[in-house]
Amino acid sequence: MTLKLHHLNASRSQRIVWLLLELGVPHEIVHHTRDLTTRRGPADLAKIHPLGKSPLLEHDGVVIAETGAIAEYLLAKFDTGHTLHPKPDSPDFPRYLEWIHSAEGAVFLPGLLALYTGMAGITEGPVAQMIAAEREKAASFIEAHLSTHAYFAGPAFSAADCLMGFQIAMAAAQGGLANRPATAAWLEKVMARPAYKAMLAVGV
Ligand SMILES: N[C@@H](CCC(=O)N[C@@H](CS)C(=O)NCC(=O)O)C(=O)O
Q1: Fold of 93-193
Q2: pTM value?
Q3: CA of 64 to the centre of ligand 1 (A)
């Protein structure tokens, strides 16, 4: 059965669009559009999965939610030659796993909290300060890693780069990479990849 990705515009599901294009597996993209006022996803998504979030992957009659789980599923099924993820006995495997999960975990959360608190008008005070400090810590951690590694998992491009790309592109759009030369250089390098360009052409 065809792989079907439920993709929400202007959302983190673009990471999975990119990964599918890197994998080169035939797939169908079902486009869903955010409400212009609330920025929420459409009710249609909740008919596919109770959480009503994107990305959602459908394959062989199964629906899978959660970016990290979808990525691991796609790699296990379609990257058996390990061109986009290191083998478990590779020295790069632990780092790869850490970044795959950081992309929705501790390095992603501060940016998301900043977005939500900013929408609520909370730009000063202890909560705003804590979020700003956590963002700074995450950005410094990424910059330090990319100063000594060509890609997130080590010397080779991997799915970890696809998963980390969304938040780094967002940070760049907000001027957040001005003092992060290694992160900016990494972004330039991955944006030149044909699959990244193809992802943009899909309409993210
Ligand atoms: N942890 C989930 C988060 C999914 C998520 O929150 N997706 C957002 C898009 S960035 C969404 O669907 N928002 C629409 C809504 O909640 O109405 C994942 O990684 O897939």
Answers
A1: Glutathione S-transferase Yfyf (Class Pi); Chain A, domain 2 (1.20.1050)
A2: 0.96
A3: 13
